[in-house]
Amino acid sequence: MNAPKRIFALSIASAIIATACAVPPAAPPPAAEATRPADPVGKIEGQAEQVAAAAVMTAMPPKPGGSAARAIELAKKYAGVTLNVTWEAGLQSQDPLLFSAPEFERLTGVKINVIETPFTELFSKAVADHQAGGGAYDVLNFAPTWLADLADGGVLEPLDAYIEQHMDKNDLSDLHSTYAKYQQWKGKTFGLWDDGDVFVMYYRRDWFEDAKNKEDFKAKYNRDLAPPKTWQEWDEVCSFFTERGKANNEYGCAIQRTAGNTYLWFYEQFRSNGGRFFDADMKAAINSDIGVKTLTDMVNANKHMPPGIEKWGFVEVLQAWMDGKLGMIITWPPIGRWSEGYGLESKQLEWVPKTKVAGKVGYAVSPGGHSELAVGFMLGVSSNSKNKEAAYAFIQWLTSPEISGQRVKIPFALRDPYRMSHFNDPEYAKLWPNAAEYLKVLQEGAATGLADLGIPGAREYEEALDRAITAAYAGTDPKAALDKAAEEWNAITERIGVESQKAAYEDWQKRLGANAYP
Amino acid sequence: MTLRPHARKGRHSGKYALVAPATMMILCIALFPLLYSVVVSFQNIDVRTPVGTFVGLKNYFDVLRDARFWNALGNTALIMTVCVTAELVLGFILAQTLIGPLPGKRFITPLLILPVVIAPLIVGYTWRMLWDTQYGPISQVLGWIAGRPVEIVWLANPATVWPAIFITEIWQWTPFMFLVLLAGLAAINPEYREAAEIDGASSWQVLRFVTLPLVWPVMAVAILFRALDAFKVFDIVFALTNGGPGTMTETVSLYAYSVGFRNFRISYMAALTLILIAIVSVAITVLWRRMSANQERMA
């Protein structure tokens, strides 16, 4: 057993002993107790440098008449008010806790109470609060695919009147046109875009440029070794590198396959292959020939990935990639920054493995030419909020070009570029040697990317598909697995209403255009 | 002394006043939610319909036609049957072993009960690491024995996922059985066994005709407790597999959680859980009657 494995085994044993000796943890606190006030700037032990870096950025006065400045003026009317803001727990929350919330309070006197919530509960807690008539939250963080459900359920407040009155309209056109398409539902704006999540294919440039690799690949496949443009090329390159490096625990590629998010890679590959989610009668079409081929290819691709890939999530892929063990991965943007070591010295990113691939990474959109616009985040105002205008002011300020431009550069913030001003930011382009190339790929990914299915019941559709995919990874026939998922999709559609779903699906296709189907 | 009627009435009023707070508390926190969930189960409340309308028995019929529900119920029954049986056998063997004189007994007993004091979610996540294909110690140890890398995806392979869940569950809950049965065995008067042995009974006969009948009342309660607990198993399966691959290991608690708190189909979840309550009530009644009959027979 090599040293890391020995350490791992020992740590497991230690953890068991330590845990066994510990008092069992109390039940999770109720929502109200889980909240905690934002820590004031500079009072968080060991984080002064990061916070200082952030503070230097905010020291720039906002552009007069811009959205940020107008939001500040609007919020000043509510000085002393506390806004309850939901945010994904953990690393995601470090942005509001350390930067956005203290800064907004300093500028306006409005206190921000960050309520850290696990990702999946961002939806259920918001709905539960609304249905109970609670008003526990003022600002809601949510995934764009939930917008239809949250808007139809009356959880979100329409924002058009606020935008009309308070936003600098130039800032709307600064938003990348793809992300701008998401903000509306049934003709009303219910959220402001806040995170340019798009899959990126990261590849080891040094592996691709290696003379021996090039020669051998050419001899085997009769074409040049290059970052794959199609899924077939992806498989070939992946298997080539795996055959070459497996003895050294190196693999050609890895994609997280564990339950929960694996449907995103199906969404991407399925539509790049020409697949459609529903037919003209709103019957599920994921079990079409294209769907079966896509899933079969995904299952077969696992053979070239590291053993146990079926249980690999984001962190496992990250670990192996940063350790230099993988030739290609397809995942979210932060890995691009972390691969180059950007911000890894900060306390918040201490858990991220040290990079062994800095300076060796290339970026591209996914094979097929379309990356999944995977998940992302939006900000909205709760319809039950007692301080809607102040809540709106906060999200307008957060998403304004100036403030969001700073947030996407904070190492520990997990918000990624989504405005043209972000993509064209010369400061961002200088953050590491090939940051400009990274930004270019993110922008290309946004332009040609494929949006997650965003109609009512989106979560249920996703979960049904996800179950089918993991069943196929475990040996279920892909056709049988997808037939079962299609049955579930049809049941969901019928329960919500075939006609209303059909209208929503048509609206989604119309709004997203080539970002729905290329 | 005889109390006059109004004095007696006053004394009764005092009693009622004393029990009223506790009664009200129970009504508020137990009975009201239960009754309210019955009301909700006849409606159609979900994420898009905060104010439900009456839909009669639709949710109940939908649950009974729901293949995923029956699959989850079958999985739950499987966990309950396999794990409680194994825990009972192992717990009894351990208790029998440790009831007699044994060197180091004072240290072994506390060590054996450690798993039961750990929160099941932590147990689940710890064992998830242990079962890890690439870095997990289980694969490592097996690799040493086999003399080559063992690359079994324990938690995503249909052939190994159930054993992995069973082992984890049994590891955590066998100590509970052990503790209860140890207490039961300790309460048996040793003279009964000594008398049987003087009469020439073999060890097996002592166990079969003396120990088991005497420990049975305690054992029955332990089985009932564990069976009820195993029926609502959530944490360990959630941490290990989250019901996957697909719905292969999904339990009814996981399914109810998914329906209610992820998809927010509140009325459907209410109907589902009420059906579960009905099933559990019937099962427990039958089980209890059989156990009682068994006890009478053994006595």
Write out key terms for the chains shown.
heterodimer; A: 518 residues; alpha/beta; D-Maltodextrin-Binding Protein, domain 2; four-stranded mixed beta sheet; three-stranded mixed beta sheet; 14 strands; globular; disordered N terminus; B: 299 residues; mainly alpha; MetI-like fold; 2 domains
Which homologous superfamily in CATH is the superfamily of the largest domain in chain B? MetI-like
User: How far apart lie the N and C ends of chain A?
Assistant: 48 Å
Secondary structural class of chain B: mainly alpha
Please tell me how large the radius of gyration of chain A is: 23 Å
Strand-residue fraction of chain A?
5-15%
CATH topology of the largest domain in chain B: MetI-like fold
Shape of chain A: globular
**Spans of chain A with pLDDT under 50 lasting ≥5 residues?**
1-52
Number of helices of chain A: 25
CATH superfamily of the domain at 31-196 and 376-430 in chain A: Periplasmic binding protein-like II
The CATH architecture of the largest domain in chain B comes to Orthogonal Bundle
- Largest sheet descriptor of chain B: none
- If you average the pLDDT of chain B, what whole number results? 91
Question: Whole-number radius of gyration of chain B?
Answer: 25 Å
What this model shows, in words?
The complex is a heterodimer of chains A (518) and B (299). With 518 residues, chain A is α/β, with parallel strands linked by helices. Chain A has a domain at 31-196 and 376-430: Periplasmic binding protein-like II (D-Maltodextrin-Binding Protein, domain 2), CATH 3.40.190. Chain A is 49% helix and 11% strand. In chain A, strands 9-10-8-11 form a four-stranded mixed β-sheet. In chain A, strands 1-3-2 form a three-stranded mixed β-sheet. In chain A, strands 4-13-7 form a three-stranded antiparallel β-sheet. By secondary structure, chain B is mainly alpha-helical. Chain B has two domains: 1-41, no CATH class; 58-298, Orthogonal Bundle (MetI-like fold). Chain B contains twelve helices and no strands. The two termini of chain B are 47 Å apart. The mean pLDDT of chain B is 91.
